[in-house]
Amino acid sequence: MGQPKVISEQRGRVLLVTINRPEVRNCVDGETAQLLYDAVERFRTDAGLDVLVLTGAGDEAFCAGFDLKYAHDTDVHIARRAGADRYGPMGFTRVTDVHKPTIAAINGYCVAGGLELACWCDFRICDEAAQFGVLNRRWGVPLVDGGTQRLPRIVGLGNALYLIETGALIDARQALRMGLVQEVVPRGQALERALAVAQHMTTYPQTSLRNDRLATLWGLAMPLPDGLALEAHLHRESLRAEEMQEGLRNYVERRRPEPLRPPPLPWEE
Length: 269
What we know:
CATH architecture of the largest domain: Alpha-Beta Complex
Oligomer: single chain
Distance between the termini: 45 Å
Structural class: alpha/beta
Low-confidence stretches: 74-79
Number of strands: 10
């Protein structure tokens, strides 16, 4: 029996989900998509998990998209997976009720549907060898896993249309400049850094963190007055939380953890 196509590992209060098909640049087939959905559902429902980190096995690719050798038989390989229309061909890209932080740890190629998986995450940490692009443009394969909706929200309309219309392949520097990724680390260190960031996030009081996250995401589609009202409504819970009172006591008693700091960029060291 071979290795599973998706590996889920609990690391404290972090769930590490690894696409495990390095021999095909971690392309996703129907079985892989279902396993990815199962992992996300586990994270969504498990109160013992605070942060999800998504990555790809090996050093060549995070994910190079859907496995196109099945494209001639797409109805078989996608539609037979229960819930594919509801959750997305790549596994979970249409799931919008995961109310906890998610991070993509990107090594090598992050293209086509793989880029859409990375954009589903809250933010992205990549290594200096990472490359990004809508390479499916070459084959006439559309973005059907959220790329047309999430890319503009992340990088802005002009940058999104540039990537979507040209099919350009960009490097880590260009991705950082666009805001597609938030940190760039030396080759091979993306997962290590993403796990360190995730573990740091688990030390925070979770109620206010999750409510700040929700207010930010939901408020994007609202006029400013409505967004401000949403923020106030969500944080009624945060202000009543015992963990906030404990945090204030720690502040007064000068128990103040060091803040997270981004690492230097590889080309600036």
